[in-house]
Predict the 3D structure of the following.
Amino acid sequence: MDENKELKLNKKTAVKGIMTEDEIKKKKDKRTKTALSIFVLLLALGLGGNWYWENSDISSKINTVAGQTKTLGEATYVDATTEATTIVENDYFSSARLERQSARDSALEKLQAVINATDESEESRRAASEGVAKLSSHIEIENKIETLVQAKGVNNCLAVVSDDSSRVDVIVDVQDLTDEIILQIKEIATQQLNCSFENVTIIQSN
């Protein structure tokens, strides 16, 4: 009887062991199926999100370097008043420079004609030569004044030295003509022309 009981117990234990292995396999299969299902779900979400991005207005927006958001095809606002003012200012200085150059070229041409004329006296030709040298000096001084004034932060500048070299008019393109800028311009002009502060006239173009 004892031997039979022991055999029965061994059989039960063996059967119980086999069932445990099956359960382990089932659990593994279940975990594998669950992981696969999650992967498929994530893949579907990714594809769906990508489609939404491509077909929605969100994809048409990009970040600029400054961190601002712009929409492709969106019109950019331009300050037409500022742009027009800048064009007018540039035209003014360009036109004024051409007029000054034209007047200087005409004066130099007349002086050169006197120098080359054989029927002119030696004194006249000497005076004409001095006039050419003076005009050349004026041109050099004007160019230096304009370059140095613009180096101070002025947008544009035009200097015109008088015929007798005693005074200079300095026309500047600057929004705020402060006392500091006026002083700097006068110092530059007096150093280049060797004149007094009173003989430097500063004109604001705008």
